[in-house]
Model the fold of this input.
Amino acid sequence: MGIASSLGIGIPAHHDALKKNSSGIKPLSLFPASPGNNFPTGEIPGLGEAVDLPRTHTLAITAAREALAGRDIIPDAIIIGTTTGGMPRTEVLLKNGEKDSGPYRYHSTSSVAEYCADVFRCEGLVITVTTACSSGTAAIILAFELLRSGRARRVLAGGADALCRLTYYGFNSLQLIDPAGSRPLDRSRRGMTVAEGSAMLLLEAAESRPVGAIAEILGGGLSCDAYHPAAPHPQGDGALAAMKSAIGNAGISASDIEYINLHGTGTLDNDLAEARAVRALFGDAIPPLSSVKGATGHSLAAAGAIEAVISSIVIGEGLIPANTGCVEPDPELKLKPVLQPLHKKISTVLSNSFGFGGNNACLVLSKPGAARERPALQHSFRFEVLGSTCITGAGDMDTTLRNLQVGKSCRGALPLADISKKLPAREVRRLKRLPRIVLSMAMEARELAGAGITISSIFFGTGLGPLSETGDFLSKLFESNEQFVSPTDFVGSVHNAPAGQAAIWLKATGANITATGGDYSFEQALYAASLTAAYGEVLLLMGADEHHDTLSPLFDGSVRASREHSDGGGALCLRAAESPAGIGMAPLFFGNARVNSSAVDSLVQSLGGPERINASYAALFAGIPAGERSAGDKQLHEFLNISAFTGPVIDYRSFIGEFPSASAAAAAIAARLAREGAIPEALAGGTECSLGGKGILLLGLGSFITAIEITAGPL
Done:
């Protein structure tokens, strides 16, 4: 394990601070606050920053190095939760009017996990999770399920976020900051303390206890309130569902929990909702509980990972941390938090994390090696496509297909009025471009799936998130000399906001995961779905990005290389089914080509070799980002040579356009063409290509190589 928070850097520093009931909350020093806006933060002392790296990346690599110290191990996969990414540096560059794209190379949230993958030579799956304040816990849950599925042996997982103006002023605009510092569960509490931090855990799948094992993850639970973009469900329904799911996933009962690490932010509504959920689950038998955010502050995406490490310390050292900052517990909560550090043997811990968009994630950790019955794996690796749609520069799916039939381009950015034409004007009046794209596709995909279909979970991929809200928030901040911002834009700026809106509209209270893996975000969202969707579950898989005239060219090299600005996405309504009755879909490969020079060979082997590839697929959709055209072309040429594939190859970005989640639109189109049984002659090189019962292979090329299959019937 590795950790960095306002309490210090490293496991020993945190053990000592927790034992002494220390607080790391102090006045802000990282950047000057505007007059009247100076309040305490959870800033990390003594963090040495690299000149060319944003602070979030430095935090992530610091914790990761501690987690891997003394081990000659290369992780099979890396899964990291973050919300700020390179924003601490980006906002300074934008404020200074920097027009050169070079300094923005680490802006994206995906760059944090990608940087760690490059440093530690990870050749496999890399996922960036951005579900606001539950990101770190959600990342650990995905890592746990990846291990349990047998698709990895060792995974580095955690979360990282650094302090920045966007979050500092954003949470203050919502009146969620306690000027005296966070006091979770106290009757005088007034809000949270914005903080920064990072924690990483090296997770290993093993039948027997590995040497040096500190704790064991028994299970995790995900849910969505589907209630409000920022406020929790007042009765804590989503929190309760996530806790129940985690305990059930662990194969234990609530009575087995011996300590609860509360989310406990110190805001009035969050603490009350969580307290109601805890009482509903445990009744009169509530175990010892506390929140550490009065000591660390709220480090957003890193919080859940930090608290997973602290929960492991609780198990390993028998030390229950105090609910720092709480002097007089709020009687309305009807909870009795631990007010002083308590030495007590603890075997099993429940750790809670909740975030904007109603994203809830809970973990159950235990003393390692105890004999217990393991629940059977209930997740499906494959899906049946019930309906698919897209938005391109041409319009919706039908318009897009009509264009493709005659070889007409679908590049461009659809006017906002066309995107919104089927959405109720009053309900979307405050929503900007990306959430409207997502809601339009979500409602269409559900309709296409057929009557009686209930969507329970949502998995969303976006490379750059809501750029309109982010740009407008920062513009107003800088134009007002950091005095005024829009709380609406702040809530809408988080990458998972569109998926949260879709959950509200669809009343989808299951898992809600947003993956922000750049050009491979949609593929990461599909992998997340394959790790968590239960057999028979109906879910919505989406990917979308918007074009922003100022920010897109700065953040995305492929946009800079393109002559025509484009955006859009795709949505597929899926049912988890190991043997799909109709059109099927499955993720097959995800490899890091930046550290594995043989990634194409690995891809071909994973697909079963040349004979199986040609027997299984009639057409190939190739996604090559314009910013990586040279490398992608070489990879495609190498794949065709090794596989001897003879079917048509469709370079889909040439007709969809350049935006990070173009693969989502391509997947939706491929699913529709698979249903129709043929590739139009304009796409197939002049002659219509009958699929003849075969499938379509979608490859993502460039820095990472990915493969998704669309099958025409039962496998």
Q: What stands out?
A: Residues 191 and 267 are 4 Å apart (CA to CA).
